[in-house]
């Protein structure tokens, strides 16, 4: 069997066109896409924003506790004793200060400049375009916010954000402020449920929020994984095409007239495909990493995990090549067979999210994509990059092994007996 | 040693080979002659176990190889009509691969490779990629790949198609050498009559999926023992002249090409004076006159009514 494997590897390595397509092309595409779409998913672009916000504080923050107690009693929401208790708890809270702290937090500081101005000046500057927008903290905002927070009733006053025209910068500023208010309401709600005595307000995190405690997943990483996987999948077509050449040149017949077992031909194809796919993905990932710094500062364990997924996916590609090889041997028109294989791989590539991220598709397509070896490998690699949880590898690994076994059975069943090819 | 008995093969009801009986004795060189589409390659594919016969038997030393194909594969070397080689591999790599799938390895394999390369005269080019070889050299490597396991029977399916005369002579000499000095039994198919005449002790002539004649060269030529072949070179040819020739007594067949005529006539017809007279009547100058001994080509023409390359 070693001779078959060596022969297939040599034939591949001697084919300069294939080497370029398999190794250089994915790297080139990754680089071009990364350059063209830089910043779409990355948070590296935060520093390029320079938002100017005018803050107009009209609120009277003197004697907040007393104002709140008076309001609670006046509105008849609670009795005097309870109102005093709430006022006492509310004295720990200061929504306006929380807003100031939030806007001046380390995360936002880099790309938002806050100017404390009076309303007239701020309006002028917004009108002149010197400032992106103005945020007005109306009089009574603190008391109203605390009152609303403790009673669950809608506040009578709220923050007002004003802008001259709708722009991306304005939209971003509005979203940030809106996010702050949502967070503030949430904190009050939590406090009510928990009955906490302290109402220290937790600031929302600025910039692009991170999920859980995982690493960020960048666009460059997506392109690297998607292209690496897609081009490894193409190897199944390459192997089938080379089988077609062997049939066309009657080399396959020459093999058949020896006393070697015909199945060795198929096994040789599978093993060489496995080796080529593993090497191809490893080289693409490593080169992309060195050229574009795709996986910075990752541990040896991370790379081992990537290696495991590469191996399992390569097994899937090897299985697919077995099916394609068997079909090639049965088809009379080799070119038609290659066309069918290309179409199959393209469909797999689309469903698996190798061309565009899978979330742009309808639900049923997303679900289907999870069953493709490439889609499964892509999603498990994305998860691995973010969380590095070994348990997340188990199920996909079993599924990829299952896919390989299924392909192997189909490939063996379709493999022609002597005289049928 | 090897014989086929009523061997037939049909593809979707269409007969490709019909009732072929042939045999090869040990050390013999046998030719299988016939035009394209006569059924030679299909017959060879069945003998070499690539195709299963629709009916009939193939026996190797009395054992039916249709049921036990392994028996014949061990001792059979097949040189296909196509260049069944990996163009991207060197001559040596090709031979090493094909040798290894014959389960040869180590020194034995190396020795076989060098021996095969020596036979085909390409030892000094063994490290070159096959794709860099000329057509003739590729054909020679194609033969070498069939010699690695030192087969007792060598089947060559039109091994000289599309190559220059020098390479062709080299291949014919190689086959002759294998047969005469190494004792290899040869089954040589071709539609080049002169190759078969040069190499083979016995000839089977196939046409339209059947063997239409068989025997030694002398036996086949005796089919034409009652005929003379006359070749004429004329200053010009016109149709009336040819028609008149055909109607002459003793003339059986007339073929014309450019300014040349080939006449097959009853032996001893003595047409010379009549020919000169006729040519003079049509104001045609007789440039050359030659009476020929019949060839296998003439035999084929006689049997089928057409030439091998029709």
TrEMBL record, chain A:
Membrane association type: Multi-pass membrane protein
Protein location: Cell membrane
Domain ABC-2 type transporter transmembrane span(s) in chain numbering: 19-412
Gene Ontology molecular function, alphabetical: ABC-type transporter activity
Record key words, sorted: Cell membrane, Membrane, Transmembrane, Transmembrane helix
Pfam families hit by this protein: ABC2_membrane_3
Coiled coil: none
Record flagged with keyword Cell membrane: yes
Protein name (database record): ABC-2 type transport system permease protein
Native source species: Gracilibacillus orientalis
Record lineage: Bacteria, Bacillati, Bacillota, Bacilli, Bacillales
TrEMBL record, chain B:
Cited SUPFAM superfamilies: P-loop containing nucleoside triphosphate hydrolases
MF terms (GO), sorted A to Z: ATP binding; ATP hydrolysis activity
Ranges where the ABC transporter domain occurs: 2-233
Keyword Phosphoprotein annotated: no
Keyword Nucleotide-binding annotated: yes
Keyword terms, alphabetized: ATP-binding, Nucleotide-binding
InterPro entries: AAA+_ATPase (IPR003593), ABC_transporter-like_ATP-bd (IPR003439), ABC_transporter-like_CS (IPR017871), P-loop_NTPase (IPR027417)
Protein name: ABC-2 type transport system ATP-binding protein
Species, as recorded: Gracilibacillus orientalis
